[in-house]
Amino acid sequence: MNWEMVIGLETHVELNTLSKVFCTCATAFGAEPNTHVCPVCMGLPGALPVFNEAVLTRAAMAGFALNCHVHHRSRFDRKNYFYPDLPKAYQISQFYRPICENGWLTVQTSAGEKKIGITRIHIEEDAGKLLHDEENGTMLDMNRCGVPLIEIVSEPDIRSAEEAVGYLRKVRAILTYIGVSDCRMNEGSLRCDVNLSIHKPGEPLGVRTEMKNLNSFQSVERAIQAEYERQVAAVESGEEIVQETRRYDQKTGKTTTMRRKENSADYRYFPDPDLPEVRLTDEDMAAITAAIPTLPDARREAYMREYGLTAYAAEQLTAERWLAEYFEETAALAQSPVNVANLLQGEVFALVGARAAEAEKNGAKPLEGRESLPVEPAHLARLSDLLNAGRVNSSTGKKILAAMFAEDCDPETYAQTHELFTVGDDSVLVEAVNRALEENPAMVDSYRKGKLSVEKALMGKAMAITRGKANPERLAELLGQALAAFSSQP
Amino acid sequence: MRPYPELCRLTVIELTAMLKRGETTSAEITQAYLASIAAQNGTLNAYLDVFAGPALAQAAQSDERRLAGQPLSPLDGIPVALKDLILVEGHRCTCGSRMLADFVAPYSATVVEKLRAAGLPILGKLNMDEFAMGSSNENSAFGVCRNPWDTTRVPGGSSGGAAAAVAAGMAPFALGSDTGGSIRQPASFCGVVGVKPAYGTVSRYGLVAFASSLDQIGPLAKTAEDAALLMGVVAGRDPRDATSDGTLSTDFSLAVPETLEGITVGMPRECFGEGLAMPVYHAVQAAAGQLRAMGARVVETSIPSLPYALSAYYVLSSAEASSNLARFDGVRYGYRVREYADLDELYRKSREEGFGLEVKRRIMLGTFALSSGYQDQYYLKAQQARELLRHEFGQALAGCDALLTPVAPTFAYKLGEKTDDPMEMYMGDLYTVPANLTGLPAVSVPCGHTEEGGVTLPVGMSLTGARDGLARLLSIAAAYERRNRPNAGLHPYEHLRKGGEGA
Q1: Is residue A292 part of a domain?
Q2: For A166, A239, A344, A433, which has the most beta carbons within 10 A of its beta carbon?
């Protein structure tokens, strides 16, 4: 029997409030070190935290969206430990009474749908950032001190790297849908700790290890695989797994010991006397739930049911809220939602990807979200219809789309001015077929000798004669008829 | 006897009246107090830092405002002094600790902003037990402060500097902080009024925290009426302190009654038993008699859980302190050991050398009380005792306007007398800690004297009231003072002379 991995994830998500959780400093990412700081977030003597209510609303909304029980009352506790990035030497967190408990989400995997439990969601403050520098030693940037976080703790329900990544993608999708976080792993606004153990199904769980601060889906996937293999190899060679914190090294693809459990701190959690209990009234809760938009799962099902999309396409188009909204708006204006979906997943995603790669090559920051797709839904809907009706073919469609990306133009007008409509007139197409046959006697000869595959090449020649504008189906039909005449000759 | 400016004998009420009538100026008052400080601080060590230049500049500005008919408040121009754990931007704030010996405050406490907005010049910073931990001011890293009644005795603590300064006419009034009696006990030892407001009355923003759920800033003054004036300046909800309570009254304009008809004063029997020094017992009983003579009904009452208060207090205050003081780690500011092998040693040695013995004792105690495996037995038990006390005080106060108790079991003791026995020192907080645990307001008022080896020493009584009852407590105290103000108009030295002993 195979070793099964058992995984629980702790996901830290920065909430996108304008100011920090216990003071009024800005949370903006990327500012000059120690410019977004004040006595409170620097933990100076005498400074006191005051809870930013905007954090409460967002955390509660995350709880509702992740099917949690959101408590009317919660409370802050101090987690005491010494580290230079923690200026008060305690982190304000929620230990005894977190705001949300007992939630779940579902992920689509190659083996079907999987439900993963969420133990709790609590609010806490972020720590600062240590910058190690050969010249100056270790320096401290406190801009991030006090940036609001929620920590989402999953049940140990995850059984594969695929499920783990699926869970994280779903968390990201839901949180960006409800607009409480931008969930950018590269900026650290979504970070993940992986707890992993192995056992044989039916047997007790093994000892788990923890891998902290994984900051991309890829490193989560690889770290899980590497740690799983390490544990299996260790157990099979008779070693014991030790409860510890391990570091995943992207370069070597291996995990190494960082901190053993016996050295770990006793955090001495106790209620923070500086902060009163946090309260949510029924009215607050009603207002928060009313503000939650339709979530990805519901949209996915609707796309499959109402538009006839495949599960895969529906999952792709609901991965981010802006995309789903873009799709819905476009689909509503187009004749065929399926065609819009295909267009988006094919040519549109390809162009968006190419532009991002180009920007990165030039050292620029790639556009994100809706800004990465500079085409009006109405225009894309029209292009979809032109393609759907065969008025432009796929190759001119690509040309038109590229032009739309360059300057968000109306595809119909563009096709007209550049004479890109499909040529469907038989006399023109017959002439193109005839010219192609005349100009390529060698091909015709091969065909006659039984090499039927040259038909494709001749199709290309005929299409080129129409400068790519021929209705491909009709052109193929006419070419076929002409060639049939040849083959029927003795 | 050194020169003692006449202005320094007067109450703030009297000074404001003179300012209003144009009989003196803020500059004159401030100069008088600075002269008094200069004359006495060498002996008493009440001030750790004197802001002579800035105080005189503020006084001059105040006089200009008054001349222009635009004083900022009735107290505009009355100087004030602060215990050295209240932050004043640009000035050192040592908390009586080597750890913060060179720490310059980068911002001002809310109370300081309020004092400035009301036009009060700040005279300087007052000596204290390190991080407010202590009852005798002997835990200051900058030398003991001495009791002006007898310089061989302690002024009490932790706001010892504040009490000594007000008693010796080195400040018209002062702000201290009270976590377990740190305003009231030194007020009693030095013969002045000390006020611990209800928790949440005065903003703690900019007060270096000892035990966050117990700390309150409050005034020390010559009279209850003077203390009420200062309360009127510093009280009020502060959006920067989430524990400040906007439902509490901020009106401290006192209506001082002629008699105490209709007032019921309760005396918890648990406060008059074993361990109480006889002179204190007699002074408080005499005060009860005077209150009765003024028309008050004095009844016996009971706080059955009082015996748990002290233990609960030391567990909770130390637990919170262990967390509050963790930020002093030598990394960003404060004392840092010169040589260290690694981060761990930087932390360990900086804290070992930066903190004094009592502070380290409390950090150890508090860390232990919060440790996993012990938290239930200590921290949680103490919280339960706290709840019980809240309940019992609520019940006792349902039938009384005020509870009358001693402030401390003894009068001022000799320097060094209790330093070797921390438990005995802790016992001295028995009557004061309940007000902090319950969040109730309490006032320490001079009620008599005792003669000890030819030296006159003051004794105080304590009045504890309902949560929003501080103004009422101060009114009762003010009414009492109109009949009986044992230290009125006299410098402590002059009590000695009066007694014929000479100083």
Answers
A1: no
A2: A433
